[in-house]
Amino acid sequence: MKEVTESSITDARAKAAGYPNKAALLKDLNSRPAGTIYKIAVNYHAPDPRIALRQQRNISTTDFDTVKAALARLDKYSKTGPWTRRILLAIRDNPGLRAADLAVKTDKEKDWLKINIRKLKEHGLTISLEPGYKLSPRGMQFLKKW
């Protein structure tokens, strides 16, 4: 973390912070109470292991059984009843569909759906898009075996 001045902010630094340019960053900063501006660098400690997991095109019998058991537990303890297979099929059949629209299609609340799709993502079965979701190669293989 490093203290900076407005004059030291460049377009490149603003873009690295997620803004289209310096003017947009300053507009956002000036909409807040006066204070000190800090530059904070963030980086990943390690690659997301789900990325490699979801790219697997072959799922072993052991992996299949492990994931199937995990999904069975999610279904068993769900207050809304079994949902994992239905949501995976809905994602497969509607890639890129916004969460709100997928929620309507599956008769689920959007917030519930997003939380539970993250659970599927933990097993490498789904990929988040902008907008929506799709099945990962691993997710497609899992569904074929299921």
Provide structural commentary.
- The protein has 146 residues and is mostly helical.
- Helices cover 53% and strands 8% of the residues.
- It has 8 helices and 4 strands; from the N terminus they run βααβαααααββα.
- The chain has helices at 11-16, 22-30, 49-54, 61-76, 84-93, 99-106, 110-122, 137-145, and strands at 2-4, 37-39, 126-128, 133-135.
- A two-stranded antiparallel ribbon has the order 1-2.
- β3 (126-128) and β4 form a beta hairpin.
- The mean pLDDT is 92.
Brief summary:
The protein is mainly α and 146 residues long. The protein is built from 8 helices and 4 strands.
* Overall pLDDT confidence: 92
Query: What is the number of strand segments?
Result: 4
As laid out across the biggest beta sheet, the strand order is 1-2
Strand content: 5-15%
The main β sheet shows up as: 2 strands, antiparallel
Q: Uncertain runs with pLDDT below 50, 5 residues or more?
A: none
- Cα-based radius of gyration, to the nearest Å: 21 Å
- Following the backbone from N to C, one meets helices and strands in this order, namely EHHEHHHHHEEH
Topology:
Blueprint lengths: L1 E3 L6 H6 L5 H9 L6 E3 L9 H6 L6 H16 L7 H10 L5 H8 L3 H13 L3 E3 L4 E3 L1 H9 L1
Antiparallel strand pairs: 1-2, 3-4
Key traits:
146 residues, mainly alpha, two-stranded antiparallel sheet, 8 helices, 4 strands, elongated
